[in-house]
């Protein structure tokens, strides 16, 4: 008995020592983690201070950078098989820069990133690329090229890529410190390309391999811009000879009424009438039309998702937020209408929703208004055009779950990566626990994404869904929207077209 007691006592002591060692180890690891995270925070603080201090120098340097029209952005072919690059944006967000490479700031090799929007084969994700920056001489037409190792390739919305061969991607390049250059050279590069060959002869790089680097326009133009009230719309590419002219004008006029001041359209294949609409709103400085014709190697929904949709949406994100400094960026398709249900416009709605500095995105749940449903039984005035938003008022009783056909409004500078129906990456917070800005699911009583389309599954299932009549959008569309907008503008666009004029 004495022996057994001593053995039990000994085992208890060993167990206590074991537990004590585990606790001490955990405490030591936690202390080390706290120290490391504190160091990260200090580096973020320094990088943030540098970004602020560099803004004045950046502003001065941008005076010498030629302003290239956005319409000239187009797909370029670098010397990487199956790869195209479209645009490039300066990204100086400290939380993003330091996360991408902890050594950049420590080694004093960079203070910002150039984020290239690309399409490439997924097998290249782990390849090593070289970034080639093109600088101009101050008093000469000649250029000077600096090469730097890239940071990494980031496939965009890869979980929505359905294992296709090609994917939209970010190619991240570290912006060189300008103290590495001769004083006769401008401080900032104006163009960039990439190569899989680190020893490439820079004299043999073709001009049409380079794309324009887009720096913040408000700095370049010395503008004091208050974009608090500004909203920018991002739409997937127009393809397969898109011809829905009434639907397009309806879409534009609605979002203008809601307070949107810029729409970015990516033109692959459309009819002449759609081009007329594009030209009309382009001349009114409400829309930007970017040529999006992709080479034949990218096959629609066979080797690449929906005509490069994720490259377009994320180009629009950085074009709107980083280049043009829009506060809110909206992702929708032509048949989707984000509808405020108790407010009169997006500004009022966002003043209600944007009530926490930690929030960075608002997800609006989808409700289907199927086109197969009967038209609204209310007799509409004969002068009103037959718009889907007027005729189709029967919808599902239930709204789709979050991220199931959802659409969104985001604070552009708080987002890193957009998907079609969801946000794939929010920016990290300036905190020791590396939290991210939050996504907020909007109560359907506040706002929904009204989706006017045909049944997307077996039609019997669509007919079996419980429905209600919902005319909420009519308070926007029956009077001001149509009488002051749609009818007047269709008359201007199609002056000689008896069908629409």
Overall form: globular
Question: Which stretches of 5+ consecutive residues score pLDDT under 50?
Answer: none
For the CA atoms, what is the radius of gyration?
27 Å
Report the average pLDDT across residues. Answer: 86
Examine the coordinates and then state which fold CATH places here, giving the name of the CATH topology of the largest domain.
Spore Coat Polysaccharide Biosynthesis Protein SpsA, Chain A
Please identify, by name, the CATH architecture of the largest domain: Alpha-Beta Complex
Roughly how much helix do the residues carry, as a percent range?
25-40%
Give the helix/strand class.
Answer: alpha/beta
GO cellular component, one term: membrane
Family: Belongs to the glycosyltransferase 92 family.
Membrane topology: Single-pass membrane protein
Organism: Aphidius gifuensis
Topology:
Blueprint: H1 2-62, E1 84-91, H2 94-100, H3 102-106, E2 110-121, E3 130-136, E4 143-149, E5 152-155, E6 166-176, E7 191-195, E8 211-214, H4 217-220, E9 231-234, H5 245-258, E10 260-267, H6 272-283, E11 287-291, H7 309-323, E12 328-331, E13 336-340, H8 346-353, E14 359-364, E15 366-370, H9 388-391, E16 394-396, E17 407-411, E18 415-418, E19 423-426, E20 438-441, E21 447-453, H10 459-464, E22 467-469, H11 474-493
Parallel strand pairs: 1-8, 9-10, 9-12, 10-11, 14-20, 15-21
Antiparallel strand pairs: 1-2, 2-6, 3-4, 3-7, 5-6, 7-8, 12-17, 13-21, 14-17, 16-22, 18-19
């Amino acid at each position: 008995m004495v022996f057994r007691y001593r053995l039990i006592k000994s085992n208890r002591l060993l167990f206590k020592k074991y537990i004590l060692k585990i606790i001490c180890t955990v405490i030591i690891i936690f202390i080390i983690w706290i120290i490391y995270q504190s160091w990260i925070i200090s580096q973020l603080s320094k990088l943030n201070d540098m970004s602020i201090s560099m803004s004045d120098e950046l502003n001065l340097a941008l005076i010498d950078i030629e302003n290239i029209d956005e319409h000239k952005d187009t797909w370029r072919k670098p010397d990487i098989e199956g790869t195209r690059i479209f645009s490039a944006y300066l990204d100086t967000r400290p939380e993003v820069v330091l996360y991408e490479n902890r050594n950049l700031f420590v080694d004093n090799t960079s203070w910002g990133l150039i984020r290239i929007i690309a399409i490439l084969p997924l097998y290249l994700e782990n390849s090593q690329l070289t970034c080639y920056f093109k600088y101009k001489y101050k008093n000469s037409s000649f250029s000077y090229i600096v090469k730097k190792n890239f940071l990494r390739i980031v496939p965009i919305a890869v979980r929505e890529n359905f294992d296709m061969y090609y994917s939209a991607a970010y190619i991240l390049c570290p912006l060189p410190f300008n103290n590495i250059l001769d004083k006769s050279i401008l401080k900032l590069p104006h163009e960039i390309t990439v190569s899989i060959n680190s020893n490439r002869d820079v004299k043999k790089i073709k001009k049409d391999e380079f794309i324009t680097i887009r720096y913040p326009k408000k700095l370049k133009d010395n503008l004091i811009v208050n974009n608090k009230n500004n909203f920018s719309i991002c739409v997937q590419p127009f393809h397969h000879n898109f011809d829905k002219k009434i639907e397009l004008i309806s879409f534009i006029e609605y979002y203008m009424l809601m307070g949107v001041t810029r729409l970015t359209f990516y033109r692959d294949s459309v009819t002449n009438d759609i081009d007329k609409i594009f030209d009309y709103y382009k001349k009114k400085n409400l829309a930007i039309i970017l040529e999006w014709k992709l080479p034949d190697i990218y096959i629609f929904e066979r080797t690449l998702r929906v005509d490069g949709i994720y490259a377009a949406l994320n180009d629009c994100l950085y074009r709107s937020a980083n280049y043009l400094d829009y506060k809110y960026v909206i992702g929708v398709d032509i048949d989707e209408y984000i509808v405020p249900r108790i407010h009169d416009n997006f500004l009022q709605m966002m003043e209600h929703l944007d009530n926490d500095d930690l929030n960075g995105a608002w997800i609006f749940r989808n409700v289907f208004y199927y086109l197969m449903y009967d038209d609204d039984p209310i007799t509409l005035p004969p002068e009103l055009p037959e718009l889907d938003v007027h005729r189709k008022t029967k919808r599902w009783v239930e709204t789709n779950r979050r991220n199931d056909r959802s659409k969104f409004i985001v604070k552009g500078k708080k987002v890193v990566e957009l998907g079609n129906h969801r946000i794939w990456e929010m920016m990290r917070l300036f905190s020791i626990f590396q939290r991210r800005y939050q996504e907020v699911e909007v109560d359907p009583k506040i706002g929904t994404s009204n989706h006017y389309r045909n049944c997307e599954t077996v039609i019997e299932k669509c007919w079996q869904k419980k429905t209600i009549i919902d005319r909420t959008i009519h308070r926007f569309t029956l009077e001001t929207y149509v009488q002051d907008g749609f009818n007047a503008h269709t008359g201007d666009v199609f002056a000689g077209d008896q069908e629409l004029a």
